[in-house]
Every structure is written in structure tokens, then in C-alpha cells.
Design a protein that fits this description.
About 45% of the residues lie in helices and about 20% in strands. It is α+β, with helices and mostly antiparallel strands. A three-stranded mixed β-sheet has the order 1-3-2, with helices on one face. Helix 2 packs across helix 4.
Length: about 100
């Protein structure tokens, strides 16, 4: 399977992260983004990164740079079509909460 031509032509473009999102499916849950603090998000990522302790100061700097440039959210949903629509809205409006 070949990638789309446009993807190949744009392969050298860089992308910047906009969000760190922790999704969770819950039966019957309403679809929602809930803001999460940057400090809480950083700690969760550090605790769950398998190589964070091996990277030392470099790991801290990379993690801090990621968190500094992103909005952080928990995301709950129960219906996939609602989740897809929520992420489409997020792409159009970067601050959903």
C-alpha cells in the first residue's frame, strides 16, 4: 500500500504537539474533555515512561518542553462516534473546555 502523494511531499514538515490527552472509555459516560494541570500531566508521564529514569536531565527537559507547549486533558467517552466528533471539534477549536 502506498502513502498518499501529498504525505510523501510533506514528509519533511515538522509538526508540534498541541495536546496531551488521556482517553478513557467508560460505559454510559458523557463525552467530555476535562482540563488537567501541566504539573499533574508531567508527573504522570514521567512515572509511566519506561526510559525516563535512564534519560536523567535530558528526559526532564524533553518532558518539560512537551508539557510547556501543550494543553492537557482527561477525555472520557462511551460512544466512538461522539469521541470522533469531539476530536474533530478539538482540531477546529484548540481549547475545548
Amino acid at each position: 500500500m502506498r502513502p498518499p502523494r501529498d504525505s510523501v511531499l510533506r514528509q519533511h514538515e515538522t509538526a508540534r504537539p498541541g495536546w496531551v490527552i488521556f482517553p478513557k472509555w467508560e460505559a454510559g459516560a458523557s463525552t467530555r474533555f476535562t482540563p488537567r494541570s501541566q504539573a499533574q500531566t508531567f508527573m504522570f508521564l514521567a512515572q509511566n515512561a519506561f526510559n525516563y529514569s535512564h534519560l536523567g536531565a535530558d528526559g526532564f527537559r524533553v518532558g518539560a518542553a512537551l508539557i510547556d507547549q501543550t494543553a492537557c486533558y482527561d477525555f472520557r467517552y462511551s460512544q466512538l462516534h461522539e469521541a470522533i466528533a469531539a476530536f474533530d471539534r478539538l482540531a477546529s477549536n484548540p481549547h475545548p473546555a
